Amino acid sequence: MDVKKQAASSGSDGSPLSGVIDEKKRKRMLSNRESARRSRIKKQKQMDDLIGQVSQLRSENDQMMQKIAATEQSYMYVAAERDVLQAEAMALSNRLQSLNEFIFMAEEVHELAVDIPEIPESFVEPWQLPCQAPQFTASANMFHC
């Protein structure tokens, strides 16, 4: 009788117990297959999301690189303009000093009393200003006598 129990429990003799075990095994296999299918779908969705994210980040990176290039170009333009303005400021400062020296000489020769204000350091060396440089406007008739 011991042999019959072993055979019944092994599920190889076609008894009702073996049918239940086979059904459980079949259900477990189906459940495992479905779980594996869901896992594959989930991994594929994650992969698709990551590919989309890579595409979006590359696009953003391209846009940032274009903005950087435009900013660098603007910086170069502003730096060149600054250099021109500094050169013009130096030339105007030198001209102002020359004109003041001319007035001093004319004053000494003709003994004229002309009140000439002192040239502020900010006009002589405008690049060393502790604050913002003053704004000047010029008109066309400003230099005519």
Automatic annotation (TrEMBL):
Membrane-spanning residues: none
Taxonomy, superkingdom: Eukaryota
GO molecular function, one term: protein heterodimerization activity
Residue span, BZIP domain: 22-74
Principal subcellular localisation of the protein: nucleus
Localization terms from the record: Nucleus
Coiled coil regions in record: 47-74
Any single GO BP term: positive regulation of DNA-templated transcription
Gene3D superfamilies: 1.20.5.170
One annotated Gene Ontology cellular component of this protein: nucleus
Transcription keyword on record: yes
Entry-linked InterPro entries: bZIP (IPR004827), bZIP_plant_GBF1 (IPR045314), bZIP_sf (IPR046347)
Keyword Transmembrane helix assigned: no
SUPFAM superfamilies registered for this protein in UniProt: Leucine zipper domain (SSF57959)
Region called Disordered, residue ranges: 1-47
Keywords of the record: Coiled coil, DNA-binding, Nucleus, Transcription, Transcription regulation
Name assigned to this protein: BZIP domain-containing protein
